[in-house]
Amino acid sequence: MTWVMASIILDKRIFLYGTSFFGWIGMGASMLLLGCALSPVERIEQDVRDYGFTRQVVFGDGFSHVIYRNNGSSRSGPLHVYLEGDGSPWLQGRFIATDPTPRNPVMLHLMALDSTPSVYLGRPCYHGLMDQASCVPQYWTHGRYSMRVVLSMAAVLRRAFASGQYTGLMFFGHSGGGTLAMLLAERFPQTQVVVTLAGNLDPDAWTQYHDYSPLRSSLNPSRRTSLDPAIYQLHLVGGRDENIPPRLSHAAVARQKKAEIRIINNFNHGCCWHKLWSTVLQMLTDR
Questions:
Q1: Pick the residue with more confidence: 260 or 10?
Q2: What is the pTM of this model?
């Protein structure tokens, strides 16, 4: 079988002491070109319409959040919670993005393969909500996994869970969404499963590995108490992932009391999770 490979770089160390005249000219030209295409929010909204999902804006704890629901799902059984990666906190590795919304919403596409009740839970300030008074760049840069972010997402999820007759929660997260999956799972006694794909399970080790600036205001799942052993943890890692190499994941998973890690040899950070997602969902159903 031939696998298509892709690579995503999510963050870089920032040294923004000044920008040359030509740097600003180049950035301006890039923005003009981008203006001719759909924005990340518009592209996601187009996908949402194509998939038949519904969009809601729900207030959490200090922030509003966009959530997408899978209309093909009933409101009974376990609720599947899809958590996206960090998107684009920086532009060109040097400029703070005014809109961090993901350009490649991996988890949105995976939710389209899921017939179980499911919700795509957006972060504060993403999906066109960055103009809220409470939104400052900290919440998509160094504080992307901060307590304020986690508590607000948890508040939204409690409302989503209360809206149906759900029997439990299953968290699915890609990259930085894996970080949030671990941080949210510990706050919900209804958690049954956590599955991460190329998950950033130890942000401190990740920033040190790449020599990025530390995520000073963020929580780190690897420095918190291990999840309840009753929660089934499956951490899928790309064997060719240069963003979050397997050795970083191995060290983080080893700190959990009960967790399973699987290396998918021909996958990298962004590709090709859709090829195995139906198999993963079936495996969870059969447990």
A1: 260
A2: 0.86
